[in-house]
Amino acid sequence: MFLDFIDQVTSILNDAVRSAGFEAEDMELGPSQHADLSSRIAFRLASVAKQSPKDVAEKIAGEIVIPKGSFIEKVEALGPYLNIWASRNFIEGTVLAIREQKEAFGGNFSEGRILLEHTSANPNGPLHVGHIRNSIIGDTLGRILKRAGYDVELHYYVNDMGRQIAIVSWALGHFEFDESSKPDHAIADVYIKANAELNAHPEKVAEIDKLMQLVEKGDAATIETFDKAVDLAVSGIKETLKKMNVAHDEFPKESSFIRSGDVSRIVEEIKATGRTEIDNGALVVNLQDYGFEKTLVIQRTDGTSLYTTRDLAYHEWKGERADRIIDVFGADHKLISGQLKATLNAIGKKEPEFVIFEFVSLPEGSMSTRSGKFISADDLLDQIKTQAYEEVDKRRPEMPDDFKAKVAEIVGIGAVRYDIVKVSPEKSTVFDWKEALDFEKQGGPFIQYSHARACSILQKARDEGLWKPEEPINTALLVEGSEVSLIKKMAMFDNMLDQCAKELRPHTFAIYARELADAFNQFYRFVSVLNAEDEQLRSTRIALVDCARMVLANTLDTLGLGAPESM
């Protein structure tokens, strides 16, 4: 709805700007503390017209013509700003649209095909706490883009032939594999032992180098051992992702781009640009004109490719199959992502969009799979579920254990996902489960509880025969400040989706979810719903609660959080 409001505002401002004798395309609309929207267009036009911004704003305001039935109530100049207020048509139309469209409200306004890659952790052990921010940011972005209307395919790019995988493959032939453990944890165990062995006996590193050469040459037996190691780890990683409500559509493997000849072909394409040179026997790409002093190595001295080389082939492949390609990378990939983008540009290929995030940690400190100093995502999720159960038990001691366990799982995963995604990607964060599970703070459990509260109100209304969902309502009765604020906040659902889809900043949608839940709770706090004396007003307010329930459910689903009906 808010996107329609913006479209109407843009149209009437365009007309008024032209009538006032100016020319502009972008109306520079944004939020305002004084109105529903504000335009800064007068600032830009003032320098061209050699007039004060205040005078320009007043001239434009004087030319405003609002069509009958518009979503716009009025436009006024306040100093250099043009402030715009929504009309009753907008308020009442939003409620009717939610009741009609239900789960579809606010979405499906964009089109195009997107390939989004996230997580892609090396399959040499389980996901640890440092990985899950990638998974949660990527999955949330995918959900936002899908709800906006894009055709989204989610990828986990599997490193199945790098040095770490060669070590795992070697380890499986030298150390006992614990069949009773979750496979990714068992892989980590032999990987850690292998690294200790290689550190103690450096001469054995030559065996790892030999394996890497054999797999790149297509040796069937070596490939089979690599595949076994990778498949074991990935099967365990998929289980962990499922616990976090994260899923991928495809798991493309690096080796497929070697076998298809795409890697060899892209190396030749890069050579044809004249940018390559030999540095200590390795083939490197000179990207100085793109601002990179450090060259990009695309072939080792022994002729084998690197992760980056295969990644270039993978991105070329993705670019041919999508309108947008998006990667979620950790801050340690900042340099390589820039070099990757520059190299693709140099050979005329589609460039990816990047979401670069700083790392999440626990108060216990940093993690390393190589040394065995890590806290697995599985351990964290189990701990969170246990703590969530204790919180639910405190609040609902009278409920059976299966209810407590079900709610604890929904709330626990929701707490982790929300606490991680609410922080802007470029900021590092420490995950504190006590704060994440605090029902009193405006985090994941607060938003989920708001949905459960709406469900409880509606159930009570049905039980007492106060409401029939199919009956028409009188939206003109919704005039209280908290009612209007809630409706306007719900109307912004599509605008927030659009903003996040364009800017790839999912934390702003998390902030919106918190604000929506707060608006609903403020509404219920300040107006009487089930006890409203007027029957028609009561029915209309109950319908507004139902609207809030639907938009809260849509919002929670977009964030990958469960929407419990009772907590």
UniProtKB/TrEMBL annotation:
One GO CC term, this protein: cytoplasm
Annotated Arginyl tRNA synthetase N-terminal domain residues: 7-86
Protein name: Arginine--tRNA ligase
Keywords noted in UniProt: Aminoacyl-tRNA synthetase, ATP-binding, Cytoplasm, Ligase, Nucleotide-binding, Protein biosynthesis
Localisation: Cytoplasm
Gene3D superfamilies: Arginyl tRNA synthetase N-terminal domain, HUPs, Isoleucyl-tRNA Synthetase, Domain 1
Main location: cytoplasm
Pfam families cross-referenced by the UniProt entry: Arg_tRNA_synt_N, DALR_1, tRNA-synt_1d
SMART domains assigned to the protein according to its UniProt record, in alphabetical order: Arg_tRNA_synt_N, DALR_1
Domain (DALR anticodon binding): residue spans on this chain: 447-567
HAMAP family, per the entry: Arg_tRNA_synth (MF_00123)
Similarity annotation: Belongs to the class-I aminoacyl-tRNA synthetase family.
EC code: 6.1.1.19
Superkingdom of source: Archaea
GO biological process, one term: arginyl-tRNA aminoacylation
UniProt cross-references to InterPro entries, sorted A to Z: aa-tRNA-synth_I_CS, Arg-tRNA-ligase, Arg-tRNA-synth_N, Arg-tRNA-synth_N_sf, ArgRS_core, DALR_anticod-bd, Rossmann-like_a/b/a_fold, tRNAsynth_Ia_anticodon-bd
An MF annotation (GO) of this entry: arginine-tRNA ligase activity
Positions of short motif 'HIGH' region: 121-131
